[in-house]
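Late entry, evening session. Most of the bench is empty. Finally got around to the prediction I had been postponing all week. Sequence below, unchanged from the version circulated by S.P.
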Amino acid sequence: MTHKQRWAAISALIYVVFVVAAIVIGFLDPSKIGLEWTIFWYFVVAALCYYFYFKNVTYREIVYYAKKLGLHKADLEALVPNRKETQDVPDPDHPDFFSPFAKVPINVVNVLSDKLIPLAKEQGIPLYK
């Protein structure tokens, strides 16, 4: 199982657990909160699960390419010079299992992936799977 498939399975499992909990507990019962709100919350949680998948896959992709390219946290910080003081970059030497949602924002992850993928292609590094 590839990393992308693993994160997709974890995200899908989280969504299924949410749906089962909503049905069993009944906190999204359309007769209580209305059909529109029920549909809204199902879509919101689906979007959050997709965000969870996308952020973790991109985070792991950055860590993969940074390790293959021999980059460290300071090198990655230099690739994103216009970030806020509270924004962090992934640490390839000490990666988290889950991407840190608050510390490493999606815009930093996107900038890094846009810069690292072409570098990896130039060096002949295999694509992240």
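Two things to note before I forget:
The mean pLDDT is 91.
The radius of gyration is 18 Å.
Will write this up properly tomorrow.
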